[in-house]
Design a protein that fits this description.
Length: about 325
């Protein structure tokens, strides 16, 4: 029970059935409830965006939903999100050192709290100016605008073997594939329709449906030999898409998949002292560069949407002490 968002009853039922001593089926059905965060209810900021060709600086402001301007733009009090989660899968453990699990899942979220698109029409700017925000060229706010459905698959494999005494090798593999779709968009409030604005535009739809990699693969080796522990991990980050404009599809950009490797070696110098030397993004991989129309005349080389950043290789040395 939330004093400001009402009550909800949630629950979960799960079951596991062993087909054989090494193979088991499992499944679960659950419902969820999430009240809007304080940030979503009260967050306010002003950001400078560059639009057009040549780029022009535009001040865009995020208004809390309870403000007068947000109300004039059709905002209403936020409601809680609700969800239904269904999952089912299989586990296989033929030996004590080998396990494989495969799980499918579906997550439906209703009344999802998202940001509206940037409202930058001339009529919107005139409304902002008449309410004391003459220097602001765009506005947005949080709202319960959409319902979404995510379908996914997880595969996890783990294997460990003792090569010799004090010499152990562990291998791990994980694969995830998930697709999120917007299944429903709430009607645009009359106040926004009058201004010629949309509640949830194409840019925001692309952000939720293609703004994160749909696939992710990770392979890890962990080798322990006496005082030395070596970990190597390689990860394939899938493709994603960003939309540069609500009206111009030519500003959309797909970022190709990338392979990222991390490695570190840890040495126990004494029982109390250890040193680790490692590298994140060992081979200095960068995301695709922004196409010219999205780069603010070359000012921005890479997109902030990259899931592994755009700072390249990171080397480190860490000294650990324990009593």
């Amino acid at each position: 029970n939330y004093s400001d968002f009402g009550s909800a009853t949630t629950g979960k039922i799960a079951s596991r059935f062993e087909l054989t001593p090494t193979v088991a089926l499992r499944g679960a059905l659950a419902t969820g409830f999430r009240a809007p965060s304080l940030t979503q209810s009260w967050f306010s900021s002003t950001a400078t965006n560059f639009t057009g060709t040549p780029p022009v600086a535009v001040e865009n402001k995020t208004f809390p939903v309870g403000t007068t301007v947000a109300s004039l733009l059709g905002a209403s009090d936020l409601e809680a999100e609700t969800s239904v989660n269904v999952s089912y899968g299989l586990t296989w453990s033929p030996t004590k050192t080998f396990t494989l699990s495969t799980d499918f899942y579906r997550i439906d979220v209703d009344d999802r709290v998202v940001l509206t698109g940037n409202m930058i029409n001339a009529t919107t700017r005139a409304l902002l100016a008449s309410n004391g925000f003459s220097g602001v060229g765009g506005a947005r706010y949080f709202t319960n605008a959409i319902d979404t459905r995510t379908d996914g698959l997880d595969i996890v494999l783990n294997y460990g073997v003792a090569l010799t005494r004090n010499n152990t090798l562990r291998l791990g593999m994980a694969y995830n594939n998930n697709i999120t779709r917007v299944t429903h968009v709430k009607p645009t409030p009359a106040a926004l329709s009058t201004l010629g604005e949309a509640l949830f535009d194409r840019v925001e739809r692309v952000r939720y449906e293609r703004g994160q990699p749909r696939s992710n693969f990770r392979f890890t080796t962990d080798h322990q030999w006496k005082r030395f522990n070596t970990v190597f991990q390689v990860q394939r980050v899938g493709s994603l898409v960003t939309a540069g404009s609500a009206t111009n599809v030519f500003q959309d950009q797909e970022f190709t998949p990338k392979w990222i490797a991390d490695a570190n070696i840890n040495v126990d110098i004494t029982r109390q002292l250890a040193v680790t030397v490692g590298a994140d993004n060992l081979f200095d991989v960068y995301p695709d560069r922004l196409i010219p129309i999205n780069s603010n005349s070359g000012t921005f080389a890479y997109s902030g949407a990259s899931p592994f950043g755009f700072n390249g290789r990171f080397l480190f040395v860490r000294l650990s002490a324990r009593r």
